[in-house]
Amino acid sequence: MSGATVAVVIATVPSAVELRAMLDAERRTGRTVGFVPTMGALHAGHASLVRAASAADVVVVSVFVNPLQFAPSEDLAAYPRSLDADVAVAAESGASIVFAPDEQEMYPGGRDSVLTTVAVPALAATMEGASRPTHFAGVCTVVAKLLNVVGPCTAYFGEKDFQQLAVIRRMVADLSFPVEVIGCPTLREPDGLALSSRNVYLSAEERAVAPVLQRALRAGAEAVAGGQRGADEVRSLMASIIEAAPLGALDYVEVADPTSLEALSVLTGPCRLFGAVRFGRTRLIDNVAAVPGGVR
Ligand code: AMP
Fold first, then answer.
1. Residue 158 C-alpha to ligand 1 middle, in angstroms?
2. Active-site residue numbers?
3. Is the domain of 252 the same as that of 279?
């Protein structure tokens, strides 16, 4: 080992046509493409997806704050943007290309000119979809476009956004996108708070109490593992823990089937526990798996 720093070669590409030409050249030589779609402000959670995607020969990370998935009242303008730092994180984690289009590139004519959208209403009506009614159609539409532009063999999504992962899986299956969707575990701070680009909005006081969301979900999972079969009891337990903490306003807690996302009443098999809490202007979401005691 010389100890010399080796510069990582990474291309930042703003143009879909240019990106496709680069990737077509890679594919012609038999190289596989792995893809990680993001909205930037990359953290260790995103980096773990990029590392997982490095099973492919060429790893593309997209950085695009998608206006279609934000309601007018939401934080589109304030959403953190840090492309130079993102490129560095992507490169260190094994990406070879960062696709960073502007809004005009993704939506020529502007976001209001988009006439075709993709939606999975049956999976998008509850939880995040209930709180953010236009969100998942915006997510599906941009992910469909990105999959068409990138043409990956594998695409990586975080379980942090579990409902999004389920919606994307279904969209890909229903529309026969030629891509394998791979879900990756949630990376957390040492105190359990899920890493999120939105954590930077938290005040010091809010940051100190924010892990209550994860604690409540864990308590729910432990109750299920300990024999609790009533989903309502689990919901009440999780809600009471969140409501007992200062500063947080409960948006929802849910106990649902991990594939259909249907709310459950009696817990007989593996399920997923979900929660969303507002801390001031910051809305945090999280989820954990739960398995009834004795069930494998
Ligand atoms: P975002 O930039 O927030 O749209 O997220 C891009 C991808 O990173 C999505 O698939 C997220 O689920 C995933 N992601 C976000 N936070 C985490 C985390 N803490 N651990 C693992 N994956 C994450």
1. 5
2. 46
3. yes
